[in-house]
């Protein structure tokens, strides 16, 4: 568990996300409380449950990005799911427990890669030995001597006796390390995955994903991977062998044990569009849909409040998984959720809508700002792209205007504005003789004037 203060966590989030200070403070406190909990005595540690967060705000204001960056900062297993994809138990569709299984699989992948990093040096040494075996096959039986006293059919540098073979091997080892044999072809056996029977129909019913996974695993053991001899270059063979040796060195039982522990203690699940499963009070003509939505909420409730989910790797407790839910709540409101579920999201944060000033900051301030991304992309074609300040202001103003006149999709509007603005330059970049290009306010108006002024057209293009 990382040791960052809430202020430091907010500072890290500020590098990528503009504004939304209240939401950043809420998630920073939630992450710090996890660190505090880990330092408590065991008898009280299990009693402290995470304070789940409900983010309320329109689309495109940074709800998902805050949760994703938080998980990356905490190095925690992170899963984003849409609440509207789940169905009540007994109906066709995904059941809510599948999110815990997916989170565990992500954790297993994280831990496996970490364990591979730990044994990377040993795996590299073993891969080098196997690679030398391919280049200089060891003698398993006496080899007849040639007329000149050397080994028949061997390179001239090979000397008779074990010492000569060792000298040859060491010479090849030195050449390998100096990169002189990278393009040399070697013949090796490469594993190929055996095609398994299709189980696509099984996953259509709720609760069947675990059975499908178990059947695939069972058939995978019944039909082992086949090996095929292929001729590959030394550099490719080295990567194959390093991966193979690392997998042998990693203890998968330990990986699964650590992954379950990490899932239970530091997992984060982001439940998007939770407002879509809220039962709208007073809604007429949709009684069946309302009952279905409430059923999904009641299935979610035990997962969020803490229960034990069965997976093919073992039992996973959800008591200390942090749930961050979000929704625009245009048609519904948080009070439309079932009361028990409302109580499991005690921290409510309203995110602010984005306007022209926020768009300007989003274009220029973050470490991964859109203008930096487009500048880097066109730099690969030798184009030195620059944006005048008044041009950035104009882009921000046009994005805000289109959001106001049509659907408000928040900062995502900037992607479409920039794509439209730079479409001509991106198409002609490889053929341009003039490599310096300045985007000024006049160019912005020229490229976007007609579209931003025509409300019907911008509804379809921007």
List the helices and strands and how they pair.
Elements: H1 6-14, H2 21-38, H3 42-45, E1 53-56, H4 63-74, E2 78-82, H5 98-118, H6 120-135, H7 161-177, E3 185-192, H8 209-222, E4 226-233, H9 234-249, H10 252-266, E5 268-272, H11 287-305, E6 308-311, E7 314-317, E8 322-327, H12 339-343, E9 347-350, H13 356-364, H14 370-379, E10 384-387, H15 389-405, H16 412-421, H17 423-428, E11 436-439, H18 441-453, H19 455-461
Parallel strand pairs: 1-8, 1-9, 2-5, 5-8, 10-11
Antiparallel strand pairs: 3-4, 6-7
Tell me briefly what this model is.
With 462 residues, this protein is an alpha/beta fold. It contains 19 helices and eleven strands.
Beta-strand portion reads 5-15%
Distance between the termini: 43 Å
CATH class of the largest domain: Alpha Beta
Query: Topology as H/E string?
Result: HHHEHEHHHEHEHHEHEEEHEHHEHHHEHH
What is the name of the CATH topology of the largest domain? Answer: Rossmann fold
CATH superfamily of the largest domain: P-loop containing nucleotide triphosphate hydrolases
Query: What is the residue-averaged pLDDT?
Result: 79
| Biggest sheet details | 5 strands, parallel
Q: Helical proportion?
A: 40-55%
Give the number of DSSP strands.
11
Q: Helix tally? A: 19
Shape: flat
Biggest sheet strand order reads 2-5-8-1-9
Whole-number total of structural domains:
3
């Amino acid at each position: 568990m990382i040791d960052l203060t809430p202020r430091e966590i907010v500072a890290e989030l500020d590098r990528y996300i503009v504004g939304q200070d209240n939401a950043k403070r809420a998630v920073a406190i939630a992450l710090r409380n996890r660190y505090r909990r880990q330092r408590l005595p065991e008898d009280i540690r299990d009693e402290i449950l995470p304070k789940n967060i409900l983010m309320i705000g329109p689309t495109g204001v940074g709800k998902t990005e805050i949760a994703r960056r938080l998980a990356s900062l905490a190095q925690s297993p992170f899963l984003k799911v849409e609440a509207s994809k789940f169905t009540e138990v007994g109906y066709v569709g995904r059941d809510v427990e599948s999110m815990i299984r997916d989170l565990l699989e992500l954790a297993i992948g994280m831990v496996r890669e970490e364990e591979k990093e730990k044994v990377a040096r040993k795996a590299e040494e073993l891969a080098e030995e196997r690679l030398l075996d391919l280049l200089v096959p060891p003698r398993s039986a006496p080899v007849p001597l040639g007329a000149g006293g050397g080994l028949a059919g061997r390179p001239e540098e090979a000397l008779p006796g074990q010492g000569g073979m060792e000298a040859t091997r060491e010479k090849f080892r030195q050449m390998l390390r100096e990169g002189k044999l990278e393009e040399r072809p070697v013949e090796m056996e490469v594993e190929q995955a055996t095609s398994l029977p299709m189980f696509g129909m099984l996953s259509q019913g709720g609760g069947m994903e675990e059975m499908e996974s178990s059947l695939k695993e069972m058939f995978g053991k019944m039909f082992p991977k086949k090996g095929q001899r292929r001729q590959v270059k030394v550099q490719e063979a080295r990567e194959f062998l390093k991966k193979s040796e690392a997998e042998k060195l990693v203890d998968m039982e330990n990986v699964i044990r650590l992954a379950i522990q990490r899932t239970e203690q530091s997992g984060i699940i982001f439940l998007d569009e939770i407002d879509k499963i809220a039962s709208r009070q007073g809604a007429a003509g949709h009684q069946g849909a309302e009952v279905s939505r409430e059923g999904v909420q009641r299935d979610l409730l035990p997962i969020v409040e803490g229960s034990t989910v069965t997976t093919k790797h073992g039992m996973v407790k959800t008591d200390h998984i942090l749930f961050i839910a979000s929704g625009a709540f245009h048609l519904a409101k948080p009070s439309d959720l079932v009361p028990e579920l409302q109580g499991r999201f005690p921290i409510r944060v309203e995110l602010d809508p984005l306007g022209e000033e926020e768009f300007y900051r989003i274009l220029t301030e973050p470490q991964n700002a859109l203008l930096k991304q487009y500048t880097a992309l066109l730099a690969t074609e030798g184009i030195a792209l620059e944006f005048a300040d008044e041009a950035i202001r104009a882009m921000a103003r046009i994005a805000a205007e289109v959001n106001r006149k049509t659907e408000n999709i928040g900062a995502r509007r900037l992607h479409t504005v920039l794509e439209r603005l730079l479409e001509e330059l991106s198409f002609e970049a490889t053929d341009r003789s003039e490599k310096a290009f300045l985007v000024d306010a006049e160019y912005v108006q020229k490229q976007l004037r007609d579209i931003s002024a025509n409300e019907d057209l911008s509804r379809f293009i921007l």
